[in-house]
Amino acid sequence: NFPKEVVIIEVGPRDGLQNEPQFVDTEIKKAFIQKLAAAGIKEMELTSFVSPKWVPQMKDAGEIVQSAPEGVRGIVLAPNRKGIERVLETPCKSVAVFVGVSNTFNRKNINKSTRESMEELQPAIEELKAKNFFVRACISTAFYCPYEGKIQEDDTLALCREFVAAGVDELSVADTIGMAAPHESYSLFSRLKEALPDVLLAAHFHDTRKMALANTYAALEAGVNRFDSSAGGLGGCPFAPGATGNVATEDVVYMLGRMGIETSIDLDKLVAAVDTVAPVISRQIDTGYYRLSKQG
Ligand code: HMG
Ligand code: MG
């Protein structure tokens, strides 16, 4: 009962790079984005309009957004009204807002309670929809929080419902610290699919405990056909201690390919995209497919 096709939302240029301690040159970021598009990526988080004091790596957002490749849905993150105002000055037409189910995490990440963020974002989403924007809502700490521990499914579901009522096109439901187990992935995504059948639903897994591919499989079984992933397995939120990389795009694409599920992504070209950033990032790229491709 698996989908025939899956859409990958590449988050490498955003989630993948935001936690890198050394500033990655803007031209390298642009080359990374172009090569990801050349590999067949059709939807991509390009950058974030966040405070450069909080996340210096994203200080070139205004320039990056200008380089969105043709034919790709280039999404930018915005945490608040100020971020959305900055986006409105660019040609970009796709925005992702982000909120944590956990109050403590939301405070660490956005300096507001979850409720305060929702009060600010709900009217802003309505305005974006009136301007024909594609709006995505990233739901952080949907399973576990590094500060509060286990998150109740009902609380995640309730926040997702609020975003759908506000008019978002897509929910990206995240295991921020890579702590969900496959039965929890299956359970939450099954409930979301049933409760909110008319919204696009993406799963966003971090691979901190090496459970991201298993969680991906479980979400597929629950009917999810959109997955966020990061080329090279880069990624992590600076305000979620211990949150290491996102599930690697090449490993998800490889697994789906072996299952006969189409993604339209070329693995060799994806490796070439990873090669553009591999020399300038702080970690060794250690994903299964990338490593094997280098052994020839
Ligand atoms: P704050 O310090 O509370 O902001 O930060 P403020 O409203 O008090 O304003 C202070 C100053 O920041 C002002 O400037 C504002 O104009 C400016 P000043 O008057 O001092 O010159 N400011 C901004 N500048 C640029 N862009 C903005 C902006 N907003 C205010 N948007 C703020 C609040 C939200 C800005 C800050 O906490 C922030 O930038 N947080 C972003 C954190 C972040 O990027 N986290 C990573 C992304 S989320 C993630 O990775 C999770 C995800 O992958 C899913 C998952 O895995 O869970 C999506
Ligand atoms: Mg993330």
Count of strand segments = 10
Could you spell the SSE succession in H and E letters? EHHEHEHEHHEEEHEHEHEHHH
**CA radius of gyration:** 17 Å
Bound molecules: 3-hydroxy-3-methylglutaryl-coenzyme A, magnesium ion
| Gap between N and C termini | 35 Å
| Mean pLDDT reading | 97
**Relative helix content:** 40-55%
Question: Reading side by side through the largest sheet, how are the strands ordered?
Answer: 1-2-3-4-5-8-9-10
Q: What fraction of the residues are assigned to beta strands by DSSP? A: 15-25%
Structural class: alpha/beta
Low-pLDDT windows of residues: none
- Supply the number of helical segments: 12
User: The biggest beta sheet, please?
Assistant: 8 strands, parallel, barrel
Question: What gross morphology would you assign?
Answer: globular
Enzyme class: lyase
Keywords: Lyase, Metal-binding
GO molecular function, one term: hydroxymethylglutaryl-CoA lyase activity
Protein name: Hydroxymethylglutaryl-CoA lyase
Note down, in words, how this protein is organized.
The radius of gyration is 17 Å and the shape is globular. The protein is α/β, with parallel strands linked by helices. Helices cover 42% and strands 17% of the residues. The protein has an eight-stranded parallel beta barrel with strand order 1-2-3-4-5-8-9-10, surrounded by eight helices. A two-stranded antiparallel sheet has the order 6-7. A hairpin with a 3-residue loop joins β6 (144-145) and β7 (149-150). α8 packs parallel to α9. It contains twelve helices and ten strands. The chain has helices at residues 12-18, 26-38, 61-64, 81-88, 103-110, 114-130, 153-166, 182-195, 212-221, 249-258, 267-277, 288-295, and strands spanning 7-10, 43-48, 73-78, 94-100, 134-140, 144-145, 149-150, 170-175, 200-205, 226-229. The longest helix has 17 residues, at 114-130. The termini are far apart. Bound molecules: 3-hydroxy-3-methylglutaryl-coenzyme A (HMG) and magnesium ion. Magnesium ion binds at residues 15, 174, 204, 206, 235, 237, 246.
